[in-house]
Design goal:
single chain; 113 residues; 0% strand; 6 helices; mainly alpha; 69% helix
Length: 113
């Protein structure tokens, strides 16, 4: 997701690192799957809920730089079709991602006070 638009924003990279930590994934293991199709990678997650959470995390990465471009939308769309996410559900997931990003910014404002 970070590389799909050709722009490497430091916020995307930081969120990627945070997600790896949250999910207990070592970066070396991520690199082992670099040449696989994205649609195949989603099947690593064994349940529909796990797949949805993975897509939510990717959405968060796509949205954090406040520039959700067509390449990112296409990738999320491809993943959504792979796991049969309805359009309405995807729109709700995108809204959740935007809210997550805003809440994170709000939290940083509180911490810096």
């Amino acid at each position: 997701m970070i590389a799909v638009d050709g722009v490497f924003d430091h916020r995307e990279l930081q969120m990627y690192k945070d997600i790896c930590i949250e999910m207990g994934i070592e970066e070396d293991n991520v690199r082992k799957v670099e040449n696989k199709k994205v649609e195949d990678l989603i099947s690593i997650f064994s349940t529909k809920n796990a797949q949805l959470f993975a897509i939510l995390e990717l959405l968060s990465i796509a949205l954090i730089d406040e520039n959700y471009v067509i390449q990112e939308k296409n990738l999320i769309g491809k993943l959504s079709r792979t796991v049969n996410i309805e359009k309405d559900q995807l729109l709700k997931m995108q809204e959740w991602g935007k809210n997550r990003i805003q809440l994170g910014k709000d939290l940083l404002d509180i911490i810096r006070m």
